[in-house]
Amino acid sequence: MIGGREEVVIRVQLPLTPAYAFTDYRSQGQTISNTIVDIAQPPSGKLTPFNVCVALSRGHGRENIRLRDFDEKLVTTHTNEYLRLEDRRLLELNEVTER
User: Domain of life here (predicted)?
Assistant: First the structure.
């Protein structure tokens, strides 16, 4: 009571869980038990399918990985025309070698 009046106080508490973040570069070589992967386009850089591969491969099983929304073009568009041509050349070379 303040000055003879009853005051009502409402308190709101948010549940917080301790967490930390890694870049894909920092996480290489580690296995992380529960992972949230955010592969959205960063404001000051560019992601490639190679970044995505590293980020997704750090989790311990796909049941423990949560993937946030992202642009599908990141994983459906070829990274580089020269790399695509080299992949094709290597596939053809493999077919010739197997004969």
Answer: Eukaryota
Whole-model pTM: value is: 0.57
Q: What helix, strand, coil percent values describe the chain, rounded to 5?
A: 40, 10, 50
Give me the tens of pLDDT residue by residue for the chain, a chain 99 residues long: 667 888 888 999 999 988 888 888 888 888 888 888 888 888 877 888 788 888 888 888 888 889 898 888 877 877 788 988 999 999 999 999 998
> Does 5 fall in a domain?
no
Residue 75 lies inside a defined structural domain of this protein: yes
Q: Is residue 13 part of a domain?
A: no
